Amino acid sequence: MVPAMPARAALTRMSSWIQLSVTVRNDLVERVGEQLEAAGALAVTLQDAAAELLVEPEPGAAPLWQQVQVVALFDADCDSAAIIRGLHAQPALAGVPVQVGQLADCDWSGTWRDSFRPTRFGQRLWVCPVDAPAPDGAGVVLRLDPGNAFGTGTHATTAMCLEWLDAHPPLRGAVIDYGCGSGILAIAAVLLGAAQAYAVDIDPQALQATRANARLNGVEAALDIRLPADLPPQPLDLVMANILANPLQRLAGELVVRLRPGGSIIMTGIIAGQEGAVMAAYADCIDFAPPLRRAEWIFLSGTKHSSGAACKAGR
Questions:
Q1: Could you give the strand order of the β-sheet that contains 125-129, starting from the edge strand earlier in sequence?
Q2: How many domains does the chain have?
Q3: pLDDT tens digits for 139-183?
Q4: pLDDT for 72-126, tens place per residue?
Q5: Is residue 80 part of a domain?
Q6: Residue 290 domain-assigned?
Q7: At a CB cut-off of 8 Å and minimum separation 6, what does 231 contact?
């Protein structure tokens, strides 16, 4: 299975697309991915660049392939030359070859529908396409239109978050999904008993997709969809962040201040080998459970110290 960086944008319309691919050492993968996302990439995926067998690494070693092909998808009207100049402006990437290609018109919504099937996460939570019947005996059913946005639970990071939510339902709690994408985590939290959920993203397409999916699941009244700058100050019972390791470290103070003492935090989008740095950014505030790993991805969960009001995250 090809690992994919969590993506936030919708690929719903029929159009042509520009695909950029660059092969780099594995220690440069996150830097390249963040650069491409900042340049407007709609999706970023990772592929083995050398048909290398991926084996269990030595302790502390990054388990990615030594050479990784980073592939990014952009709107057809993007300035690919400017994107390449941005990559080359980084000393470690100066002169690295970048391949540019065009993808033919495709109904991405239909493509996702073809591969998206009802899937269970944990004991009772099911994620189902809007037009597919729920399995007999399904407990909690979350409906998604796979054309609305990426984030159907098929990626390992989303799946681990959904399984955690199923096992730790936020009954009557207030939660935040920071970097909500399709809104799947916020909606799942409400369906599993949360009284209120904030769905937060910097991407207007993600917020639009979240609104559509909230209506689809009848949870609009409990779901508050906002930009990060518009969040209210009161601390919440659960913080969820499925983004990337570097942003998780930079946002440590922002995320911890949103969490009440004794509240829970779950984080993923972390490539194996990066969890130590992420946990260190929260060490003054969060007691972590042992990390979980699926494929190349790490899932972290923890609880804010009871004296957490005075903690200093991100130092």
A1: 119-121, 125-129, 140-144
A2: 1
A3: 899 998 755 444 555 678 889 999 999 999 999 999 999 999 889
A4: 888 888 999 999 999 999 998 998 999 998 865 554 444 445 556 788 899 999 9
A5: yes
A6: no
A7: 176, 198, 200, 258
Q: Which residues pair with 18 in a beta bridge?
A: 74, 102
Q: Is 38 exposed, middle or buried (0-12, 13-18, 19+ CB in 10 A)?
A: exposed
- Domain assignment present for residue 287? The answer is no
Domain residues for 31? 15-106
Q: What is the pLDDT of residue 63?
A: 41
Q: Is the pLDDT of residue 3 over 50?
A: no
Q: What is the CATH number of the domain that holds 37?
A: 3.30.70.120
**Which are the contacts of 131, defined by CB distance < 8 A and separation ≥ 6?**
none
